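Entry 14. Ran structure prediction on the chain below.
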Amino acid sequence: MGRVDMGVAVTGVGLVTPAGADEHTFWAGLCAGVSVARRCEELAGLPVDFACPVDGIDLDEAVGGRSAWRMARFVKMALVAARQAVADAGLSPERWDGDRVAVVLGVGVGGVSVLVDNLRKLDGGGPEAVSPLLVPMMMPNAAAGEVAIALRAHGPSLAPATACASGATAIAVARDLLTSGRCDVAVAGGAESVLTPLVVSAFAGMGALSLRMGDPAGASRPFAADRDGFVVGEGSAVLVLERTLDAQARGGRARALLTGAGSGTDAHHPTAPDPEGAGARRAVETALHEAGWAAHEVDHINAHGTSTPLNDAMETALISGLFPHRPSVTAPKGVLGHTLAAAGAIEAVATVLALEHGLVPPIANLDSLPDGFDLDCVVKEPRMQHVERALSHSFGFGGHNVALAFQRVDADGPPKKAPGVLAVG
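Output, structure tokens:
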């Protein structure tokens, strides 16, 4: 089938996050602007003993049935979020053509806790003690595979791994599958759960984590003058994407329009961002071009905002350089910590909700910007703002940069500068 040049709509969202395991709890937590970081028993005695875990949900119960035992934690989160998103979209796997449904779920690491547990079994009991399920449980594509099984999705099933940009990469890839005509529905997002002593120790050893041991809730401080690193989180978010006209034809609801996606690579360093931000700028400019927007038309930016000195400085220079009109800026990692591969998908949902609600959540723990950081950061409390066009930034180790452009659905007619796209009421 040839390329189908239509707009792409977000018709459903689902979340399992440290701030809440459903859309409404998540949004309330994000708008409260209070970090959920806490000390974790499993990290006791480490150089960093706090994180942002997912609480308040029994994942085995939420997954249900007899299949949860074969799933790593990140897979369970992805499946719960995917089911929420499909239900929110008003779709049913029993009624759709599974050959035309894609699943694209970004995961950075996979089931590392399963690997560690089985390594202990190997050391203690020999090869016979190792679970035959180790490989299918730990592989990063397990989330995409299990979600496809649960949703009866037989179209492309992909697991992009671009570190902390993985969730955003998955959404960009899903959009391409739709606009190329390869599928009619795409279930896309990201998932990650690596709150283990091994991984947290590794991040701490490389100097990436905040060392505010006396104040876990104040540790994640995006763009703050005294930021000193990120806080590890876990979670998943999934979006259902459809061509806008297809959603309209079935009587579906468009929650937002995904009008552009761009990517660019630093080719600079394994972990540090290019201080000039060339790859990130390329990603943003490509997203703007695809959306048909001028830079001054962007109202809001959901920043990657990791709370690390290098990333926040690079992103500040990028935003102030490209957007001198100072669009509002938020950074969910102040509340959620850094959910790694899930971050781009979670923040994409947050961007959609900001468009819908006309409300921008505040950045937690941001008291003062450093000299030279010329940003309009939302702080202290949510800001009422009519947002028409917004960008969501995601940057990952390895120099992977992705920008997603979302536009508010105008119930009175098609959005501006998006020819051929019709709003869905």
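The first strand starts at residue 8 and ends at 16. Will compare against last week's run tomorrow.
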